[in-house]
Amino acid sequence: KMTQQMRDLQLAQARKPPGPSSPNAAKRLYRNLSGKFRVNYTSFDEGSLVGRGEKEKLRKSYLFQSNAALFEAVELQDLDRVQEMLKHYSPEELDLNTPNSEGLLPLDIAIMTNNAPIARALLQAGAKESPHFVSLESRSLHLSTLVREAEQRVNELMAQVVNEAPNADCSDKEKQLKAWEWRFRLYKRMKAGFEHARVPDAPSSVHLSVASSSSLQVTFWEPLSVNSAVVTKYKVEWSCSPTFSPLLGEAVMDKLKELQFTIQGLVSGTAYHVRVSAYNMKGWGPPQASAPPFAIPSNWREYDGRAPRRRGQAEALDHLLGQVKTVHQHCICHEPCKNQPQSRKHSVSKSLKHLFHPGSKFLKTLKRGLYLTAIFYKDDNILVTHEDQIPVVEIDDTYSCLLMQDFLWLTKVSCMWDEILWLRQCVTVSQSSCSCILQTRFKMLLAISQMQGLLGIQDLGQVFFEPIKDKQGNILIVTLKEVKTNQTFESVRWVPICKLQTSRKSVSSPEEPTALDTLLISVQDKLAYHQRSSHALSSGLYLGYLKLCSAVDQIRVLVPEQLPNILCHVKIRSNSNISREEWEWLQKMASLEEPVATEPEADRSQNPLFQELQVAIKELMTLVNIPLQEAKDFRLYSQEVLDFGDQVSFLLLLPPSDDVCTAPGQNNPYTPRSGFLTLPLQIFELGEER
């Protein structure tokens, strides 16, 4: 069978240009092919292709070329080129796990030539070993056949070159001879690599932790030995017995991007022992037991049987909202307010006429009042009106100061952009039946409806945490939304942000800029804030620092500029779960009057969480610029663990009770370094929910 494969290969070579005659020739082939690959076949104009058949031929041609180029790069042990191809092309485009005519895969060549860096790169990309090697004997026989047939082909070509007179055919024979000599040396090196290899050592370390009340997380590291062949998979086994008899389960891992495995479906409160073993082309190595030797699936809530804080809350709120809607579904919109002064009536009437009048449009200038602007951006472009203005509509031309409570109310409305019409009806009914204190909020809803109508879109995005004010008496409320699709809007167009900033002519002095000028100057900062506020934390357990400061009309919370939707924090570990045993220890520490640092040295070494917290507290104190000696007066919030979904949880570090919230006029002796800001507490809560 192998002889027939080699004959087929020879026929294929006779029909097409000869392969690389040397490593240098192969490199030239690779460079030529990689230049072609930079143009993806999907980028061609569809009109230039005759039909699906031609497109399919073109696709197969590129797949064949990319697969051949990858084999060449692996055979030449060119790590940079292998990494480059794996970076720019998917495993399917590279045909990563399709054997060549010799029955080999790129990973087979890498591990049998003992090229660990290339083998690891291939493994992380999802490469597998050839399914033809079902046993050590079959692999050995296959390699021996390759070496024997390559040697035979070299001898045949050498005899032909020696016996034939110099001509064009002889030159081709010499090229084939060089190629086969090079391939013969490759196969001999692969055969020697296989024969000298041995089974791998045990993984150097296996760490066991509690992932939930029904799962354990196993993290392990590669064997330390450098003499054995590359490890291509691992086996995780678990049992209730330290002798692993009987075995409760096992799992084989051949995707090695992360050396980590989560054992699911375990019984809470039961102790499980775990061990891990490694595999290479010579077989399975000895197992390595975990540290600690066993773990018990549990969660901190089991300590006192506490239910999740938010269980059923979303459903309850939806039910309440449905009830409110039912009550107001037959309300009459725009009912006049009987008790309001004449000027207020005229203002509402004017606003309504402005909303539904055909001449309703965006404003060009501000004339002392309260305004709403919507910033939509995509990459480095921003939406503007046909007059190259950021969309602005008027809320109230008689409003001279923005009450913080009205602004915070509007930020909550931003969670219900689709319900603006219904909210307007509700606010109108409240006005007619009670008093006129909701006039400003009603005008805000009118302005939102006008903005939605002019843009032709409901969702205006997230409200920026601070209105823009100028000395002319203007107040500008800003909403921000990133557009990720090719969405069309009415009455507006896209322009580059830099072009808008340079082309706009300011009508104010640098000393007293208008709110619109201030917006244009700071638009990049606002977009950066918006993007950062939507970032999510990676899975893990975090230590957060809660620091508040109060003003006359609001409480603000300290947050990092890079993640303004999260408290100042450092990561404790990748496992987000706090086990019942760990929570019991934290409760014990919280009840002691002595500092945690006085715990006996023996207990510290037995408690990984203690060591992790020590490192995290030092890092956090440095981050927020608080001397480490002051940490003895800080305390961990021991009432609960703050869970954000299933993958992120927080322990809170609190300052002394008198310093949790800094009062107006009170000096804060420790000022955080640059890179922090304070947000209104309600804004922070909304950002956290998003």
UniProtKB/TrEMBL annotation:
Query: What is this protein called in UniProt?
Result: ANKF1 protein
Sorted alphabetically, the Gene Ontology BP terms of this entry are: establishment of mitotic spindle orientation; regulation of establishment of bipolar cell polarity
Q: Which segments carry the region annotation Disordered?
A: 1-25
Organism in which the protein naturally occurs: Regulus satrapa (Golden-crowned kinglet)
PROSITE patterns xref list: FN3 (PS50853)
Chain ranges of the Fibronectin type-III domain: 202-299
Q: In the UniProt record, what gene is named as encoding this protein?
A: Ankfn1_0
What the entry lists under PANTHER family is as follows: ANKYRIN REPEAT AND FIBRONECTIN TYPE-III DOMAIN-CONTAINING PROTEIN 1-LIKE, WIDE AWAKE
SMART domains reported in the protein's UniProt record: FN3
Top-rank taxon:
Eukaryota
Q: What's a GO cellular component annotated to this UniProt protein?
A: spindle
What Pfam families does the record tag this protein with?
A: fn3
